[in-house]
Structure formats: structure tokens, C-alpha cells
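Changelog note: in this version the structure field was regenerated for every chain. One regenerated record is shown below for reference.
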Amino acid sequence: MAFLGIDLGTSGLRALLVDTEGSPIGSAERAYATHHPRPGWSEQNPKDWIDALNSAMRELRDDHPEFSDIKGIGVSGHMHGAVLVDEIGDPIRPCIMWNDTRSHEEAARLDAIPEMRAISGNVAFPGFTAPKLEWVRAHEPENHARISKVLLPAAYVNWYLTGESVSDVSDCSGTGWLDVRERGWSEALLAAGNMHSNQMPRLVEGCDPAGGLRIELLSDWGIKHPVIVAGGAGDNAAAACGIGALSEGQGFVSLGTSGVLLLARDGCDPAPETALHSFCHAIPGRWCQMGVMLSATNSLNWLSRISGQSPASLTKALGTEIRNPSKELFLPYLSGERTPHNDAQIRAAFLGLDTQTSLDDMTRAVLEGVAFALRDSAEAMKATGAEIKKLYAVGGGAASRYWVELIATILGTSIALPKSGEFGAALGAARLAIVAATDARPEEVMHAPEFCKKITPRRDLIPVFDDAYERFKDAYPAIQSLQ
């Protein structure tokens, strides 16, 4: 018996085949293109996702005999994208992606409606789905008139797999149409966005069955028996399932291009005024709270480009033990900022430079600035009653022991580094498939990975970094007034 997790990422698809214990059997990856017809626009062709999926399935079928014994499939995907399909299920236009900013005016209008934040629990960001549909209504009315269903990217793959329009509540939390507390479509929010409930997919929990794999695919892929397709999840909720973050205070900090601090919550405590994301988790009765800062490793990569030194060289030069805060201060807003400022126009700044400032000093300031921005998210979560209880570090930046120890000290909490292996969104999707197909309890399947190290805070440095964080917070309004 085997199970399949599919992660529809921004740049490519990853398919992970696992056994009944969730241990990897094999994987396949395929890339696809993102198109930028105009500045700020970001689109993909849903057909490319399906071509990637079928190609990956052929590789797994040919390389792993266990593939023919698949019992369940789960899909995770990049959130917020708008796939508009007609009556026969064909896409009307390319998918407008999560990082597309064309609908900023529509987002501001929707966000000004009192029900939006009160019901959805979130700011109506331009990246959300509802503003995209308002943009289509205003600028492509002929396409808007043809819409039979609006599907998120993962839901479009679910439709291809099952023939049914079905999505999970974690993914749909980022549309701007979902009542996140009640885990269902909001008629008021749909009406505000000029949409109807019959244009929405059927909602299920991420670990519940969404349908069965189509007979045609069973034959094409060489699978011997019926296959359950799980509801699936948005990418971050799936990643939480992959790392075992199910209960209150469990989560991860992701140091990728952007930085993410995610905590699982046992209740729904939104704080949209802080620009936190408050979404349903992929398992029933749980939620996720997430803070996002837009330039994490991207800040270090920027310093790498202008200095001619690799990111690894920059961090290696600092040694392995953190020191007192740098006298230089870096505000990491190279691409604007999400949590807590929701400010697309703000830009980065160095403060406190003098003739003695070295490249090492600037590197320390960049790493500290990213860590302070992550603390902004942690403070916003604490204001809603959240407490960090168990945290893992993932992403490329987690390879720097110095950076992880810095973040642990600034957040005041230990951070575990998982052993190498699978613990991401594809594994989370596979775990959802196991639950949906076997009726196992999520807690039995979605356990935390083994960790190779636990990085503890430098208790002796917490007070001085607390002071430095206050200086960091005070700098934001100062640079905002200059831009």
C-alpha cells in the first residue's frame, strides 16, 4: 500500500510517494514557467500543471512498482491563485497568481468593507483571490461573465483528479470569501465581491475524502484499485502537517526568499489589524496563524550581489557564536513588508553607518534585521494569546547556525533543526491522504520529525537584543516619513 503527496509549487510540481508509515519511497519533480505580461502581473497556464503532473506520474510508475498500489492522494498548492473555468471545466484565462499585484485598488475597496476583516479574519491583500475577481469583472467583463467555477490551483488539480469541484478550508481561507471561524463560505463576502456560492467549489476538511481518482487516470497511470483523493491543503498548512505542527503553539520559522513564522492554534483568534494571516488548518477544529516578512534570505542575497561575496561566505565570516547587537541597523523592506505593517511602498534602509563600518558589520545587521522582523510577527501573535511552544527552522537560511541562534535569542525560544529528509508540503499532502484513505487519526500520522540540533537562546544576550528590537521598531515610522 502506498500514498502520494503532490505539492504544486510556484516554480514547479513535486510528487512524493510514501509507504503506510509515511516514509519516502520515491519522488519526481517537474518545472513550469511563470509569465509576466505586464509589470506586477504574474500568471501561469493551468495546462502546464497537468502536463507536469502526468509526466511526474509516469516517472513514478516506471521507477517504483509500489506506485500501482496507491490507496490515497493529497494535493497542496500555492494559495490565492484564481483559476476561472467555464461550464465544461476549461480555464477561461491564465491563472492569476498569489504574487500578482494588479488588483491593489480592488483590494483596498474590499478591505474597506467592515464585514471583510470581521468575517474573513484577514486583510484583503491584493494577492488574495477576491480582489482578483473584481479586477477581472472590471477589466475583462467577457471573461467574468463566462465563469462557472473559481478554483484555487490545488482545487484545479483536485478537479482533474476527481472530476469534482472541491477544495479544502485551509486553502480557501486565503480567498477573502471564507468565514474562517465557521469554516464555510460567507454569503456576505461573496456578495461584496459580486460572486455567488454556486461558483465556489464544495468545501471539505483537508484530511477528509474529496472524491475518487477518475477511472481514466486509474487506467493511464496503471493503478490496480480505487484511490481516495483527500481535500488537501494550502502550502503552508500542508507544511505544518509535514512537520507535525498540529496543536496550540507548535510551528516553524521558514527562512526562504521570504520569512514565515507559523503557529498552529486550537482556536480562531484573528488580528487583521496586524496583517497576520489567520487561516483554517488542514485538520478539523484547528487553525493556523502566520506572519510573513517579504525579504528574508532575499536580504542576504541582495548584500551578496552588491558585495561580490556568496551568502555562505558572508555568514561564515561571522563565526558560530552571536555577539552583542550590531550598532548598524538594517530594516529589511526591500520589497515592502507584510506583517505587521501591510506596507507595499516601504523600502529598506541602513542606519548608523560610519567610516568604520565593515562588510561583516553589514552582514550582522542584515541577519539581525530579518530576525527583528520575524519578532514583529511573534509579538503580533502574542497579542492574540499565542505562545510559542515548539518551533522548527526550515528553508535555506536555516543552514546558518549563527542566524538560527540569533533568531532563537531574539524570539526568546529554542528552535529545533530537523534531520535531513522529507518534512515539507509534499509530505504533509501525503499524510493528509493517509488519514483520508485509512481513517487514521491525524495525530497518529502527522508526527514531528527527528531533529539533529536544538538551538537555545543566548540568555545572557536577550536583554541587549530586546533593547535593539525597540530601536528597530522606532526606526520604521522614521523611514516611512522619508519615503
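Spot check on this record: The chain has two domains: 2-236, 244-422+450-483. The chain is about 35% helix and 20% strand.
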